[in-house]
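Homework help board

Subject: predicted structure for assignment chain

Our instructor gave us this sequence and asked us to write out the predicted structure in token form, then describe one feature. I got the tokens but I'm not sure how to describe them. Can anyone check?
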Amino acid sequence: MNMNIGDNIRKIRIAKKLSQKEVIMNANIDTAQYSRIESNKTEPSLTTIEKITKALGVSLSELFEEKEKEILTTNSGMRAITERMLQIESLSEEESNAICIILDAFISKKKLKDTLEKFLQDIK
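My token output:
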């Protein structure tokens, strides 16, 4: 079964009988942003994922359980990343936030690079 992170978030939220508003308030994130995440219209940053897991009262491994199974069976390169993500739970909040900031920077850099490459192709 192919599940997106938003599907897992919604499944857990419903199982815990929480409203979207409760999760949004406890995670201290924007309502529209949460709605886009849960409806799979956007992928959340790791910082946002951490906030949502705390609001839901679950671990990262519980949130990624279905995703992890799918990744581990399809891509050995992603296996190492998934294993490390699960180990983040054992770090202090400060350490885990630092990792999230670094990963967000790499992701932003990649998106910017892709956007610039597309722009350069469009003007040629």
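Reply (TA_rk): Your tokens look well-formed. For the description, you could write something like this. Residues 8 and 95 are 25 Å apart (CA to CA). That's the kind of observation they're looking for.
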